[in-house]
């Protein structure tokens, strides 16, 4: 069998405003008169995402509630730096778990479904390897990807963030019969370098990062690399 391992965010789909848009939406709900811009949110030093420390697995977070609870202090600090006092900042932080996964905010790139189907017709199997939130299965189902993806390996469930070697080894172990394996993603470090360190050739899409030897501006160019 032939296996394509796909990243999700920035590769197959995206969320309106991503994380900064989520935090701004919560500010607007809490304090409608307060004006906060994407630039202000992005300017805040942030080091609290699970994927910021991929060398430290979080396999002890076994439920969605535990995963989000671990992030609440981080979000609260961001809201405090936006000018909110600690008690309301923590209440706002607790809203992120409801706002970020809102299905209406998630979309696919125009080439995602056509290219995935094209590869299936050519005999490829799709797996997903992504650093994401626990609600990913609902998002995939909403976007119509569930029927096209054979298996999903989500860091919120496995406890391993790309580029941790175990994240890739988990996928390889699930497909011991795979004779050809490729990784496709939009991050030159987490997706490309991480995969290649695990012995998986990788392709960077949607970004022009010269650290990746193989790259193309969209999914239409992937076939030229993996054609066998």
Describe the structure.
The chain has 228 residues and is of the alpha/beta class. The chain has 2 domains: 2-14 and 105-226, Rossmann fold (3-Layer(aba) Sandwich), CATH 3.40.50; 17-103. It has helices spanning 18-30, 38-43, 64-81, 86-93, 96-99, 112-121, 136-143, 155-158, 165-174, 188-197, 222-226, and strands at residues 2-6, 13-15, 106-108, 124-130, 151-154, 180-185, 202-205, 215-216. Helix 10 (188-197) links the parallel strand 6 (180-185) and strand 7. Helix 3 crosses helix 4 (86-93). The longest helix is centred in the first third of the chain and has 18 residues, at 64-81. The chain is globular, with a radius of gyration of 18 Å.
Rg over C-alpha atoms, rounded to the nearest angstrom: 18 Å
| Low-pLDDT ranges | none
Number of domains: 2
Termini separation (Å)?
12 Å
**Helix count from the secondary structure assignment:** 11
Q: Give the SSE string.
A: EEHHHHHEHEHEHHEHEEH
Shape: globular
CATH topology of the largest domain: Rossmann fold
User: What is the class of the largest domain in the CATH system?
Assistant: Alpha Beta
> Any idea what the CATH superfamily of the largest domain is called?
HAD superfamily/HAD-like
Share of helical residues: 40-55%
Strand content: 5-15%
Write the CATH architecture name of the largest domain. 3-Layer(aba) Sandwich
Give the overall pLDDT as a whole number: 96
Structural class: alpha/beta
Q: Can you count the beta strands?
A: 8
Q: What multimeric state do the chains show? A: single chain
Largest sheet: 6 strands, parallel
Biggest sheet strand order reads 5-4-1-6-7-8
């Amino acid at each position: 069998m032939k296996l394509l391992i796909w990243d999700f965010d920035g590769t197959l789909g995206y969320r309106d405003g991503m994380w900064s848009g989520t935090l701004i939406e919560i500010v607007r709900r809490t304090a409608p008169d307060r004006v906060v811009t994407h630039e202000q949110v992005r300017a805040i030093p942030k080091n609290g995402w699970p994927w910021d420390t991929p060398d430290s697995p979080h396999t002890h977070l076994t439920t969605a509630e535990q995963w989000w609870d671990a992030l609440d202090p981080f979000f609260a600090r961001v809201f405090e730096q936006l000018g909110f006092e600690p008690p309301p900042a923590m209440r706002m932080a607790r809203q992120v778990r409801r706002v970020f996964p809102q299905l209406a905010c998630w979309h696919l790139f125009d080439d995602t479904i056509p290219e995935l189907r094209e590869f299936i017709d050519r005999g490829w199997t799709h797996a997903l390897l992504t650093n994401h939130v626990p609600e990913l299965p609902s998002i995939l189902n909403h976007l119509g990807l569930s029927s096209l993806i054979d298996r999903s390996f989500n860091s919120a469930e496995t406890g391993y963030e790309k580029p941790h070697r175990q994240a890739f080894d988990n996928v390889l172990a699930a497909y011991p019969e795979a004779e050809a394996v490729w990784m496709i993603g939009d991050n030159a470090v987490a997706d490309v370098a991480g995969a290649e360190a695990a012995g998986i050739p990788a392709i960077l899409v949607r970004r022009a990062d010269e650290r990746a030897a193989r790259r193309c501006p969209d999914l239409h160019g992937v076939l030229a690399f993996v054609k066998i």
